[in-house]
Automatic annotation (TrEMBL):
It catalyses: alpha-D-glucosaminyl-[heparan sulfate](n) + 3'-phosphoadenylyl sulfate = 3-sulfo-alpha-D-glucosaminyl-[heparan sulfate](n) + adenosine 3',5'-bisphosphate + H(+). Disulfide bonds join 293-303. The lineage of its organism: Eukaryota, Metazoa, Chordata, Craniata, Vertebrata. Pfam families: Sulfotransfer_1 (PF00685). It is a single-pass type II membrane protein. GO terms for molecular function: [heparan sulfate]-glucosamine 3-sulfotransferase activity. It is found in: Golgi apparatus membrane. The active site is at 99 (for sulfotransferase activity). The keyword ATP-binding does not apply. InterPro entries: NST/OST, P-loop_NTPase, Sulfotransferase_dom. Its EC number is 2.8.2.-. Coiled coil: none annotated. It is an enzyme of class 2 (transferase). This is Sulfotransferase.
Amino acid sequence: MLFKQQALLRQKLFVLGSLAIGSLLYLVARVGSLDRLQPLCPIDGRFGPRSQDEIPLRALQFKRGLLHEFRKGNATKEQIRLHNLVQQLPKAIIIGVRKGGTRALLEMLNLHPAVVKASQEIHFFDNDENYAKGIEWYRKKMPFSYPHQITIEKSPAYFITEEVPERIYKMNSSIKLLIIVREPTTRAISDYTQVLEGKERKNKTYYKFEKLAIDPNTCEVNTKYKAVRTSIYTKHLERWLKYFPVEQFHIVDGDRLITEPLPELQLVEKFLNLPPRISQYNLYFNATRGFYCLRFNIVFNKCLAGSKGRIHPEVDTSVITKLRKFFHPFNQKFYQITGRTFNWP
Ligand code: A3P
């Protein structure tokens, strides 16, 4: 009898204890996110006339709460009406470069309360079939947001696809364009590593990087190899500059985004005319991953998927030297055009 009573008491204590811990965690999470939100100021009217006072605070704070559900397309008609939610065309696009850190950039910008990301790569402007579906189709692919927020999408194929600059220009000639770059040879090897992994998954064999990057007949850099061509940043940028002035682009240092993300993100906030809201609190280094991960609040953290940050195969140093020498003049031109200089060899 006594034993039964003790067990009952233990059970009750356990339930009460769990409830207390749960409530405490909830309160701490709320305070954490409230703290982040307070100074959100109107964004000089650029991204919509709605004042901050009208925004339901709770929904805005919880990037993993109510708004998160809306983004996943779960909003009911009632919720859409109640919160005045809209699906907006992007005000900024991360147009590339593939393997530059485009996913990390998008996810990190999404930490900002005034930014809403389109989670998937939409491939509207580079895919003829999608483009033929029209701009309304594209808009409907966007997440729900409050009118004062800005939507950002990323599709790295945009940077290298011939037709894309004109198509984006036709949609919005004043759109802001983000390009994240890495040291070109490293980026090319990263590009190769991704393709290699895909082949391996299908149990297929693949060439070594050296064989693809260097033309065996001339022993020169193989400019027909896509991973090499993509890294000639200036060639692609020049096509874009036929439509957009250079001021409409912001270049992000993808190598620095890996080692020291905050200053890079602060430059992007400035470029997008957003109040500075991403802080060191939102980014923490995860030694196991070897990368910075994201902290939305004390409860919700996330790292990028394992497909980001692959181990690169070892590449012959003479090939690396040859590639670096090849990219050098293109890099110089890229610095000259963009006004952003890197310490690339
Ligand atoms: P590697 O896999 O070569 O290391 P993209 O998203 O454009 O495909 O770019 C992928 C690259 O993002 C990765 O290349 C990785 O180095 C880089 N990256 C930058 N910040 C990262 C982060 N916080 N977590 C994981 N990868 C990150």
